[in-house]
Write a structure and sequence with these properties.
The complex is a heterodimer. By secondary structure, chain A is mainly β. Chain A is built from two helices and eleven strands; from the N terminus they run βαβββββββββαβ. An eleven-stranded mixed beta sheet of chain A has the order 1-2-3-4-5-6-7-8-9-11-10. In chain A, strand 1 (18-21), helix 1 and strand 2 (42-46) form a beta-alpha-beta unit. By secondary structure, chain B is an alpha+beta fold. In chain B, the strands form three sheets. Chain B has a seven-stranded antiparallel beta sheet with strand order 7-2-8-1-14-13-15, covered by helices on one side. A five-stranded antiparallel beta sheet of chain B has the order 9-10-11-12-16. A four-stranded antiparallel beta sheet of chain B has the order 4-5-3-6. Chain B is globular, with a radius of gyration of 18 Å. At the A-B interface, loops of A face loops of B.
């Protein structure tokens, strides 16, 4: 058992981040220390080696940098702080994020930001299938492409894709807004293209800036719900 | 679940380290399938040799001494066939300088109860029930050299936890297939293949996939074509890795529920269920790392 100690909240910034080397320290100890973290602390995780559940359940305005590739469920249930992964992230990145920021500089696997309620998830590379599935308020900005069935049953929040989107984008979508710069392989049930008005250009510019991107908002197309699926149609009453 | 780790070494200077690299990969996928495991190694000195056919038989105890098996098999083969038998871990290897069909015939006459789990000039296949790392240690994987290696840890769903139900399924010369997932229509495809005269060893769904690929290859498909055709015929969830004497292929079903990640360098191509299995490979920091696209067949040849 390795005991990790957080730097004092009052420690001068010159002390730099607490370094946790996961080639020796267990993930459980890292996460426990992060759960005890105070606002303003910063942490660097080295040799992550694709381990699962890194930096899960943070609930402080702490800054965590994972130097390398993270495994499944990195930065899950995240609140307040900032987690940066310098490499790739596995399945279920930032699952159920509530607030704060999660930034992956490489690619993310399937189900990134699934069911996220709030906060910002930035993926500089590509995201796999089911990105933003059942999103409930999270903002997601993907620099590259996203896989099939992304924003499936999305309820709230914004999904910005600077590359292409796979099949069945926004299938059974409720009220989230989707912006795609590249090609969409196909739209899912009840997802349609919608006009890009001034208010959308403004929010898109804000999201791109928050993600540190310089793409032109006018190059994007907006997609959203046709609202035919989740309203009951009396014409269908005999079907039951 | 189930875990897969596969390694094709492009740089011959890495061949002596094949077993230790595959072992480090296997160690990280044990959690995904602790029931049973299997290994396939290609061109491993001491297990196979050029110009000789080798059969891998399930189990160390075939009910006869190795000397009796050797003489029994030798008696059924030409005098210059130089039949040899060795036990490696939980596997019995029978080699002779004849074609595999002739060797299979001689082995099944000598050992009617034997199950052939691997055949060919280049591959040795080893399977057992228990902790995957113990199985690897029993077979001495760590010290094995080779050009390619494939390992699978199984969390059984479609058939019983038996050594025979472990992957890889090797049903044609130097061909191996491992599977993470399940085929939902394997029973009907099995019936079709049986009608064409294909004989099965087990009730396992993956064996149907392996027999299907073998049947397509026999009909002239390339490895890529065989896997494209598999996608049209077999329904279900799958990430598959298929190896031949000089090739490796990866394919995921179009829905892609089952994970896969690939790392490619000038020295090797490695595929695993999870990145952590690749983390200890040499030069991984500079490798091209990507997830295979759903429904797309990837092949690499030595």
């Amino acid at each position: 058992m390795v005991t990790l100690t957080a730097p004092e909240a009052t420690a001068p910034a010159l002390d730099g981040p607490t370094v946790v080397d996961l080639s020796g320290a267990p993930v459980r100890d890292l996460n426990q220390a992060l759960h005890n973290a105070a606002d303003g602390q910063s942490w660097t995780v080295t040799n992550p080696g694709g381990k699962h559940s890194l930096a899960v359940g943070i609930n402080a305005d702490a800054t965590v940098t994972i130097e390398g590739h993270a495994g499944y469920y990195a930065a899950g249930m995240h609140q307040k702080g900032t987690v940066t992964v310098t490499g790739n992230a596995g399945v279920g990145l930032a699952e159920n994020i509530m607030s704060g920021t999660v930034h992956v500089k490489g690619d993310a696997s399937q189900s990134a930001a699934a069911t996220g309620h709030g906060g910002l998830v930035v993926i500089d590379g590509n995201a796999g299938a089911r990105c933003g599935i059942s999103m409930k308020g999270v903002d997601i900005v993907v620099g590259g492409n996203i896989g099939h069935m992304s924003a499936f049953m999305a309820q709230a929040g914004r999904l910005v894709v600077c590359g292409d989107a796979g099949d069945a984008l926004g299938d059974s979508i409720y009220e989230a807004r989707i912006y795609v710069k590249g090609a969409v392989a196909s739209l899912g049930a009840d997802c349609i293209e919608k006009p890009l008005k001034a208010e959308h250009l403004a929010e898109l510019a804000e999201l791109l800036a928050a993600a540190g991107r310089t793409d032109n908002p006018a190059d994007f197309k907006r997609y959203g719900s046709a609202r035919n699926l989740y309203h009951f149609h009396v014409d269908n009453s005999t079907a039951y | 679940m189930c875990g897969i780790a596969a390694l094709q070494l492009r740089n011959p200077s890495l061949h002596p380290r094949m077993g230790s690299l595959l072992s480090s990969m296997l160690c990280q996928i044990v959690d995904r399938g602790p029931d049973s495991a299997g290994l396939a190694v290609y061109n491993t000195p001491g297990l196979v040799s050029p110009g000789t056919s080798t059969l891998s038989l399930l189990g160390r105890d075939q009910g006869m001494t190795t000397a009796d098996i050797t003489s029994g098999v030798a008696a059924l083969l030409p005098s210059d066939a130089a039949a040899a038998v060795q036990v490696v871990g939980d596997t019995t290897l029978v080699s002779a300088a004849v074609g595999t069909d002739l060797l299979v015939k001689a082995v099944t006459e000598t050992l009617p109860a034997a199950t052939v789990i691997g055949r060919g000039e280049h591959v040795a296949v080893m399977k057992s029930v228990g902790h995957p790392m113990e199985i690897a240690a029993d077979h001495g994987l760590e010290a094995m050299a080779g050009s390619q290696g494939l390992s699978h840890t199984r969390m059984a769903t479609e058939s019983a936890v038996t050594a025979g139900g472990s992957h890889p399924f090797s049903v044609a010369d130097d061909l191996c297939l491992v599977h993470n997932g399940s085929f939902s229509n394997h029973a009907s495809v099995r019936r079709e293949l049986k009608r064409e005269g294909v004989v099965f060893d087990s009730e396992n769904d993956t064996e149907v996939g392996a027999r299907y690929v073998a049947s397509r290859l026999q009909q002239g498909d390339t490895l890529e074509e065989a896997l494209v055709n598999l996608g049209k015929v077999l329904d279900g969830f799958y990430t598959l890795v298929v190896t031949t004497a000089d090739s490796m292929a990866v394919v995921r079903d179009p829905i892609a529920c089952k994970p896969a990640i690939i790392a490619e360098t000038d020295d090797y191509v490695a595929m695993a269920s999870e990145y952590r299995a690749l983390a200890a490979l040499p030069g991984i920091d500079n490798a091209r790392i990507f997830e295979p696209e759903p429904g797309k067949v990837y092949t690499w040849s030595l």
